[in-house]
Amino acid sequence: MFTGLVQAIGVVEQISQQGPGALLTIKSAVLEGIAIGDSICVNGCCLTAVSLDGDCASFEAGTETLSRTNLGSLATGSHVNLERSLRPQDPMGGHFVTGHIDCVGNVAARDDDGEWCHMRFSIPAPFHSQVAAKGSITIDGISLTVVDVVDQEFGVALIPHTLENTTLGKRRAGDEVNLETDILAKYVERAIHYRASP
Fold this sequence. Notes:
This protein is α+β, with helices and mostly antiparallel strands and 198 residues long. It has two domains: 8-84, Beta Barrel (Elongation Factor Tu (Ef-tu), domain 3), CATH 2.40.30.20; 103-196, Elongation Factor Tu (Ef-tu), domain 3 (Beta Barrel). Helix content is 15%, strand content 43%. The protein contains four helices and twelve strands; from the N terminus they run E-E-E-E-E-H-E-E-E-H-E-E-E-H-E-H. It has helices at residues 63-68, 125-128, 160-165, 183-196, and strands spanning 8-18, 21-27, 39-42, 45-53, 56-61, 79-84, 103-113, 116-122, 136-139, 142-150, 153-158, 176-181. It starts with 7 loop residues before the first strand and ends with a helix.
């Protein structure tokens, strides 16, 4: 479980084919001191550390993860958002993030206003009903508040801190992003669906 509060931007040092999947080696100071088997949120995806070397950690990503997230598009030198898993004593500053990506969306538009920014994102039809204005959404592992929802797009307002300390600062129209809708929205929608069923 995570909060969606990104702790660092990591750099992909190496990508190696490993059977049908891949081994991603990522470098960041936030990875120092973790243990093999620890869960780390990488661009919103919960991955398991399988080997360690100082401030570098390697993670195995299977074909399902590579095909259903933007991790399959990573290359050496790519930047990724990182967050260690939530501990019971940690403050809950974002919202509950599982690290299980629902879908890949795209940056539909970017409107910069000085150091601030408003971005719009597309989201596939099966998931747009789980997004609500003033609700929470996770974009590439970042907990954000939805400003508005129109058809199959939603908007978020980004403060300078978020733009500087996450990969969203470099995102442009057309870029792919990992999306995880609010877990509460999933359960509510499922409950309503079954109550409405004959």
